[in-house]
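ok posting inputs for the MU-OXO-diiron job
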Amino acid sequence: MKTQRLSQKLTQALNSQVTLEANSSQIYLMLASWADDAHYDGVKNFLMKHSQEERVHMAKVMEYIQERGAKVVIEALEKPGPEPKDILECFEMVLDQEIKNTEAIYQIVNWSFEEKDWATWNFLQWLVNEQREEEKLALNLLDKVKLAGGRSMSDTSKFELDKTIGNTPQEFPVADDINPLE
Ligand code: FEO
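and the output
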């Protein structure tokens, strides 16, 4: 009896998404390490928390693959880097990472639509919503960095920006409801 309810193509695509979320978590860790070294304590805290958020996404996709009777394959991760040169580049990298992730998810949504795999399509709507929120947040933070002066911000602006970013809430309700790590 057939127990696997995911096609080979979608199994591979979702496994790639597991790797992508794990790589994304590594990128946030690399950025957090850069922020600590550059004395942005608030930014570091934000990036550390976000790294964890990416692990939640990874675990959620793993859980879905398993729930559909397919096998999760854990791959090696890429070395993230190079580190950003400054705070502006740091948040440009955050936005870039989120957009790449969104595009990968849209591709899987397309394939699930083509296959009429409505369970997978429906599951992916959670990630689509999550990405919408994450892109909104990344854009908002990039705007804040630019408003504070970008590459030529004063020490006072740097202090205020760091505090603001450190206090930015980022636990999205959609993720909280289904956090498999809790
Ligand atoms: Fe898992 Fe930031 O997307």
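notes: Residues 8-37 form the longest helix (30 residues). The chain has one domain: 8-170.
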